[in-house]
């Protein structure tokens, strides 16, 4: 979340007349974020989040709207977009595509406890269970083909040992996943701690689905485990690991192929973020004046997954 396109009270008050959300009361820009402009909006009927899309593939926005509508209808804790009086969700404001959402309760968990981990695993398991029936399609923009293509662009910026590490890992993924038949569906694609909101131990919302796509469900789960259970050294906290996975597996048991490829998927998702952060620093600088994330975190995760034993999956 951030503000790159400023809005004033009059613009937003006029914009809100398209909806049945009450009369405008207050507007506040949200300073955090890297891609889109985000505002908290208060009316006499509640609190809302207004997002202006600043970059990216705008043609993909209908996919996000349909996915959030679908998951919201299934009772998942996601912010279903508000539709206007004519039933349309995707709008334009200040020359940008715009969506209005209900404001979800809670805050980001910096150090999630076991109850919060279990709540996340429960919600993700339920989401993956129903997302396999979602009919929308969007290719995973950060899949193995992307890794194989884009890693060459950062190699000149790496030390020889890291070049070798990246090449060897991608070759291993290409071999292992070539004929793998893994369950697929709609995934969040970026379910870090800061894309959740908690009110105490209750999961108030899963937000920011703008990396959402159609992909392997195991890919989504591995992103979660790498972020939610790893300490500063990359070591997995076994209690958090078991809490998330036990709750998840109660809704969607893993196939034999998924269990066999689990350690490798943890490595591949770690490399996915190592590469994406290296690209931002060396190849694709951000469109706005922001501080890029440190790639070293994910290199550490990758090397720990290579060196350390991944705990067994719950039965």
TrEMBL record:
Its EC number is 2.7.1.39. InterPro entries: Aminoglycoside_PTrfase, Homoserine_kinase_II, Kinase-like_dom_sf, Pseudomonas-type_ThrB. Keywords: Amino-acid biosynthesis, ATP-binding, Kinase, Nucleotide-binding, Threonine biosynthesis, Transferase. Pfam families: APH (PF01636). One of its GO terms (molecular function) is homoserine kinase activity. It comes from the Bacteria. SUPFAM superfamilies: Protein kinase-like (PK-like). CDD domains: HomoserineK_II (cd05153). The keyword Nucleotide-binding applies. Pathway: Amino-acid biosynthesis; L-threonine biosynthesis; L-threonine from L-aspartate: step 4/5. The keyword RNA-binding does not apply. It catalyses: L-homoserine + ATP = O-phospho-L-homoserine + ADP + H(+). Residues 27-253 form the Aminoglycoside phosphotransferase domain. HAMAP family: Homoser_kinase_2. PANTHER family: AMINOGLYCOSIDE PHOSPHOTRANSFERASE DOMAIN-CONTAINING PROTEIN (PTHR21064:SF6), AMINOGLYCOSIDE PHOSPHOTRANSFERASE DOMAIN-CONTAINING PROTEIN-RELATED (PTHR21064). This is Homoserine kinase. It comes from Salinicola endophyticus. The gene is thrB.
């Amino acid at each position: 979340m951030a503000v790159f396109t400023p809005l004033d009270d009059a613009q937003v008050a006029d914009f809100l007349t398209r909806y049945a959300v009450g009369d405008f009361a207050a507007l506040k820009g949200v300073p955090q974020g890297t891609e889109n402009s985000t505002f908290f909006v208060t009316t006499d009927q509640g609190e809302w989040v207004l997002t202006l899309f600043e970059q990216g593939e705008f043609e993909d926005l209908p996919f996000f709207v349909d996915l959030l509508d679908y998951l919201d209808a299934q009772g998942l804790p996601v912010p279903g977009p508000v539709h206007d009086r004519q039933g349309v969700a995707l709008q334009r404001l200040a020359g940008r595509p715009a969506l209005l959402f209900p404001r979800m309760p809670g805050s980001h968990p910096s150090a999630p406890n076991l109850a919060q981990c279990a709540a996340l695993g429960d919600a993700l398991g339920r989401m993956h269970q129903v997302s396999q029936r979602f009919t929308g399609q969007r290719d995973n923009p950060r899949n193995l083909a992307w890794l194989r293509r884009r890693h060459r662009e950062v190699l000149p910026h790496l030390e020889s040992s890291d070049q070798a590490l990246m090449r060897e890992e991608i070759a291993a993924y290409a071999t292992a996943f070539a004929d793998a038949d893994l369950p697929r569906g709609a995934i969040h694609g970026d379910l870090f701690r800061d894309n959740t909101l908690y009110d105490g131990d209750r999961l108030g919302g899963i937000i920011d689905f703008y990396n959402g796509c159609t992909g392997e469900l195991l890919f989504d789960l591995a992103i979660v485990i790498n972020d939610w259970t790893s300490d500063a050294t990359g070591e997995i906290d076994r209690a958090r690991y078991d809490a998330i996975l036990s709750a998840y597996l109660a809704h969607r048991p893993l196939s034999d192929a998924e269990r066999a490829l689990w350690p490798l998927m943890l490595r591949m998702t770690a490399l996915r973020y190592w590469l994406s952060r290296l690209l931002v620093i060396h190849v694709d600088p951000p469109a706005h004046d922001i501080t890029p994330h440190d790639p070293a975190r994910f290199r550490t995760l990758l090397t720990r997954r290579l060196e350390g034993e991944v705990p067994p999956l719950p039965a």
